[in-house]
Structure formats: C-alpha cells, structure tokens
Amino acid sequence: MFYPHQQTSHASTGGGASKHHDSNGDSGGNRLGSGGGGGGWARHPSHPSFTPSGMPLPSPGGYPALGSSGGGGAYPPPGAGGHGHHQHSNHVHLHGHNQHHPSFGGSSNLGGGLGGPGSSNHGPSYGGMSIFVGGGNNQQNSPPRGNEPSMPLTAFWQHQMLRAEASRLSSSPHHRARAAAISSRATNKPSAVTITDPNNRPASSQSIALNGIHRKQTSLSVTRADSDRGITPPPPSDPSSTPGAENADPANPAHPPAPNDKEEDKVSEPWTGLDLGGIRLKTLSTALFSFDHITSLYVNHNALTTIPSAISHLRQLTLLDATGNELNSIPPELGVLCKLKDLLLFDNNLTTLPFELGTLYQLETLGVEGNPLDERLKKIIADEGTSGIIHHMRDNCPPGPEPPERHWIEIEPDVSSPSSGKQESFTVLTYNILCHSFAPGTTYSYTPSWALEWGYRKQAILNEIAQASADIVCLQEIDCEQYADYFLPELRRHGYEGQHYPRSRARTMSADEQKAVDGCATFWKSDRFQLVEAQVVEFNQLAISKTDMRTEDMFNRVMSRDNIAVVAALEFKASGARLLVANSHIYWDHRYRDVKLVQIGMLMEELEKIVENFSRLPAKLSSDPEYNLGRGPPKYDRLLKGRDIPLIMCVDLNSLSGSAVYDYLSTGEIPPDHEDFMEHTYGTYTDKGLKHRLGLRSSCASFGEMRMTNFTPTFDAAIDYIFYAHKTMKVTSVLGDVDREYLDRTVGFPNTHFPSE
C-alpha cells in the first residue's frame, strides 16, 4: 500500500554548498558541514497525519462522515505555533533512483502474518491502493495502556497526548493512504476533460495525470495536486530561506562542497510514502527495506513484536509510525536514520530505549505515551521534551566498537626505479583538524558533547599524528594559540619541528585576537630534514599586487577571501636532496568556484617562482656516501627552473575530483572560457586561461581517489588531496579508507573515534 508524499512532476531543486569553510565575513565564523554529496537540496516537511484541512478523518468504513467539519489531526510540538505543518529547511534528498518500483498489490511480499478471521472487506483495488468499505466492526483502535502512572501534564507531555490520540484514530487499515486518495479525488478534479488519442502515447517516461491518478507502465499510483491540503506540498524555494547554491547556511553541516550530479539528470520516484498500517502484520519482510527512497513508513496498529535491524537501510525516512503494536524493544540501528523528524512508538510494551537514538539530532517528536517506559526517561521527556531525551541518550551512550585498522594500498611505481644507489623515502600526512571555533554543539549536534570538547579532540588528534609517525605532517584549520601552546610543544616531544602561518586577517588584529585565527601548519621530523626556508602565500595580497588583473570581480570576490598557503623548502640531512612542501586550504564555498580557480592559479604561479629560486641555492657540501652512489648531494639543472626538485602539495581543496581546480592541478591547464569562471572577469586568467608546468598528480589517481576524506550525516566524499611531482618521485602506498561497515553504523564525524569530520 503506497501513497504519494510529493508530486512526481516537480523535482526538488537546490544547489550544493561547500564544506570545510572559512571563518570570514560570509560564514560568520561558523562551519558548514557537509554536508551530501550532491543532488537536490530541499527539505520535505514531515506530517503526523495526512488528513487534509477542510476534510474530516475517514470513518472506519473508509469515507468521511457526511456533515463532518474539518479536523486537522496534525499537532505541532510545543512552541511551534498553532498550525500543524512545519517547514524544515535543512533536510535533503540525496540520491535519485532510475528504476520504477511496483505498486504493492497482492503479489508484493513486504509484510507477513496478515491477521486471521475478521479482516476488513475490500472494495475495488487500483494497483496497490485499496479502498476499504464496510462497517466499523473491524476497527483496530488500540486504546492506551491503562496500568501506567500519570505524568505531570507539562506542555511536552500534552504534545505526547495529542500525538498519541491522533495516531490512535488512524487504526483502520491503510488509514493514511485512504485519506490521501480521498483527498486527491475530492480536490484534484479538472474543470475540463482533455481528450487524447489512446493510440498515440508519448514516448517520454513522464506520467500523464488525470484526476490525480498517474499511469506508469502497468502500475498505478495515487498522487495529489497542489491544491491537496491533506499533504502539504514542499515550500517554495525562497532564496532567503532555502539552503542552496546561492544562499548556503555555513552553520549547517548538511551541505556538500559541490553537487555530484545535476538535478535534471535525476529520476524522481513515483511515491515516497508507504502505509502498511492496521492490517495485522506479525512480521516485516526484509524486501520492504529495499525501498530505500521512501520518506514515510506506517506500520501502526499491527501485531509486530520486533522491528528488523535492516530498517537502517531506509536512510531517507523522516517519519516512522509503529504505534499500537506489541514491541518489547526497538533496534539500536534506528539511530542511523538521522533524518527522522517523527518516531511514533505509542501503545507498545517498551520499558527502555536504546542509547543509539541519541544521534537522531533532527528528531522533533519521540512518541512513547502508552508504554511501560522507565519513569526516569518519561520524566525527561515530560520536563525537557524530545530534544532533552535525545541529548540525554547522546551524551550517555557508551562508545561503540572501534573501527578496524585501515589498510595500506600498495601502488605500482609510476616511474622507473633509478639506479643511482640508495634513495630517500618518506611518508606524508595531511589533516584538516576542524578548528574548535568552527565546531559549536549546535552544528555537530549528533556528536556527544564530551567528544566535541576541544580538550578531548585535540588529544585524539595528537594521538593520531603520533601513531601515524609520518615524516611530514600538514595541518589545516589550526589556530595560532593551539599551535604555539599545544601542538608545537607536544610534537617536539615526538621529534618534530614546525612552521605555522595564520590567515591574512591576523595582520590587522591585536595579539590577543590573533590567537583565535586559524591557518596552516607544516611539521617535519627534525632528525631527517633541515628547514631551508619557509614562507606564506597570501592570496588576497597577491590579488592586490596583480596590476593586470584589477577587475571588479577580483576586488569584490577574491580580495575578501584571506586563504593562505604555507610553503616549506626542506633538505634531507642524509642525502642532501631537496623537497618542497606546500600546504594550503582553499576557499570553501561552491558559489565561489571562480575564486577557487583564481586562488589555485595564483598559488601555482608562486610555487613555480619558489621552486626556481630553491634550485639556485648552493648544494650541501657533503652527504652520506650511501646515497647518489657516493657522488655527494644531487645537483639540479637551472635550465629546468626547479622542476627537477621533488614537490609535495597537501591541500584541502574543498572540491571533488573532476572539478576545475582538481583538473587544473592534474593536467596543468584550464581554458579561459571554463564554466567555473562563471562569466566573471579575471584579466589574463579569463583571456588566456591557466597553465602551470610543475607536472602534478594526485597520490590516489592510480585507483580513482579515496572513497571519502570528509564524513557528515549527508555528505561523504574526498575533498582533501596530496599532489606530487610525478617526474621526480613515485608513490609506493596510500592509507586506505575507513571501514565501510563501520561508516554504515555511524551517523557522522566527529565522534568518539574520529576527532574531525
């Protein structure tokens, strides 16, 4: 039994926003989480019931009683106002589906254990939609349990009672689906009948709607028109309120750095809700959980004793109603359904709740009235509401099992092995540590408060760095105070030296204000490397100095972004070989992808100058004879202008592979009319394009990049990279991804095991 939750002819629209953002004037010091890997970024409202305003609830016989006045049935949480439909702007739909799901007719095997005698009489059936007729003898109202002590009638508990009563009135078979169908037929009548040639059907896969019924191949689905008030349509895309490409909320972690796919390429599902309520189900078939696009699931007023853990596959759920069953427990896997707004468990046999529900950070209603629940939990709900119980369970949930150890991926050499004796080898680690000023509890509300505390996170970050024991460590989003007071002293104990530069805004601040400004820090093992020179590349200062690029766009879009890069020229102590290490954090916002291109273009120009100057410095006088066949430190050809010096670039690019900035670093060229310039003007960059000759390649390019370097509830993808000069060195191995099974059990980072997202 299915019912529509939105029109199939209208797709949600929106754009992606960036991740790993800056604390400049645009973001107000907040941090944008990512959020989803791409696609449509629109929130679909949740509804406790599908009774249209202006129409009564269906009677047990299946139709509204004549003469009844409209009864809403949707109750807002305390403080939400007087109407029952709420707009939530931070919900997302991530992935489209290309297959058409069948309607649930007699052959579907989604629920088992239909009740015995006394079932309702069935009327005409339209595909999977059944209209129930007959008297009220088969009504399955489940009254509240009568043996529970009364709770104080606080505003929160009043909300519980109202929602419980609305759910109890929805006990007849397929109540919500029938209400939606009745409403659709009553309100979606065209003023004129369109006559079409039945032998000349359009080739398009789009449905043709008539009286609210859409025919798709051989199945039928009932949909609503915009005038259907039984199911409130998604709010219009208001640029001032809807998060999208043009007005991303930097304080919300639900936005990705860039869309993976174009919205128009996605196929909308014909239905997003499933009503299996009131039909005496005893078990739920695992086939049900293959429909991972549904946003609302009703299994209320059945005879279920358990909910399978496979429900965790329904990651798009915003509403789950399991009222009036015989549940003794609920699976902890419900905790990964972090888009849930309503979890209705009224009138069951629950005595406790799993702590894993604490990650349901968007939950607005947790319905538990009518259960013999632990009095302490009930009191929290009565006193503090749903958010109070969620925070209690989140902060008291014991840490789960640690993830399996990450494995190294062996890489075949991409250059021939030289025959000049012993060669230098080294390891590199790049890490955006999530500056503590970018991680308020309101942004990462799925993370236990104690795990989000900077004292806990900085110790966990230090432990990771020490355990990795990389020869070179590049950190982004590390502020001046934490570098000077914690990381540099602690890493010195592990044999490192380092260099840190803050963002350009620190130039105009007092000493105390500078402490909170983040930047980039590069560390190296002091027993292996000698620092020759370190310098900072300030993108807004470079923009000012480029007289041939002083366009309006350069002033208004680039100069106000104070991202930087730290460049360290190092020398191996044993062999005398040289190494240039660049460490950068590029602007986060996808709306400013032209700025990203300009920043990377200026950085590559500066690196070409720095590496050329590095090649002109005199070589060391001596070196270990095991290296270079005892001929002393290597010599560098000045005619190559430093391109024979090994170069490493660790960069938080805030962009996916295949983006313009990624392609520019990998190929060395971007045309002047590239779409990511967005028709803005940047002098020679948009007249002649971008070019560099450093010959860079991503360290993961041989196997197609990491699965992810950023993991939040609605976004996981690779946006951090290590590039290298592939003509002067080779990659031998790369640390593999975090175990996918662990990620499937996790809502997002930071968490108890991973201190940064």
UniProtKB/TrEMBL annotation:
Residues 83-100 have a biased composition (Basic residues). Residues 1-152, 165-271 are annotated as: Disordered. GO terms for molecular function: metal ion binding; poly(A)-specific ribonuclease activity; RNA binding. Its cofactor is Mg(2+). The keyword Transferase does not apply. Pfam families: Exo_endo_phos, LRR_8. Residues 429-736 form the Endonuclease/exonuclease/phosphatase domain. Residues 26-41, 108-118 have a biased composition (Gly residues). It is an enzyme of class 3 (hydrolase). Keywords: Cytoplasm, Exonuclease, Hydrolase, Leucine-rich repeat, Magnesium, Metal-binding, Nuclease, Nucleus, Repeat, RNA-binding, Transcription, Transcription regulation. Its EC number is 3.1.13.4. It catalyses: Exonucleolytic cleavage of poly(A) to 5'-AMP. InterPro entries: CCR4/nocturin_mRNA_transcr, Endo/exonu/phosph_ase_sf, Endo/exonuclease/phosphatase, Leu-rich_rpt, Leu-rich_rpt_typical-subtyp, LRR_dom_sf. It is found in: Cytoplasm; Nucleus. GO terms for cellular component: cytoplasm; nucleus. The keyword Protein biosynthesis does not apply. Residues 1-12, 187-209 have a biased composition (Polar residues). Its main location: cytoplasm. Residues 119-128, 239-252 have a biased composition (Low complexity). Belongs to the CCR4/nocturin family. This is CCR4-Not complex 3'-5'-exoribonuclease subunit Ccr4. It comes from Kwoniella dejecticola CBS 10117.
